[in-house]
Amino acid sequence: MTFREFAEKSWAVPSQYVHNRYMMMVHGCGLVDEFPSVAYAVDFEEWGYDGVFEENMVVSVESFIGEKDGIEGVKLEEQVLITAEGAVPLSSVPLCDLPDI
């Protein structure tokens, strides 16, 4: 799958959260946003570039959702291994595991 195809098939960030989105939704693992950096579909013409996800790549899928001038938001990041069958999460920790209150 190409980076553009991935961007176009991905969830579109709702308009009230676009201002605070990260510049890239996928990036390589390293000290900073390493290659590849995959832009959101809305940003692809300006920030995107040609590329293809290849088997055995490890990438970070990252997002921040928070309103402009808001005081709260949610940041998620998951490292995944690209396989012939798709992306496999490398973490075994669930996104939400709340105790009974």
UniProtKB/TrEMBL annotation:
<dbReference type="InterPro" id="IPR000994">
    <property type="entry name" value="Pept_M24"/>
</dbReference>
<dbReference type="Pfam" id="PF00557">
    <property type="entry name" value="Peptidase_M24"/>
</dbReference>
<dbReference type="InterPro" id="IPR036005">
    <property type="entry name" value="Creatinase/aminopeptidase-like"/>
</dbReference>
<protein>
    <submittedName>
        <fullName>Peptidase M24</fullName>
    </submittedName>
</protein>
<feature type="domain" description="Peptidase M24">
    <location>
        <begin position="15"/>
        <end position="84"/>
    </location>
</feature>
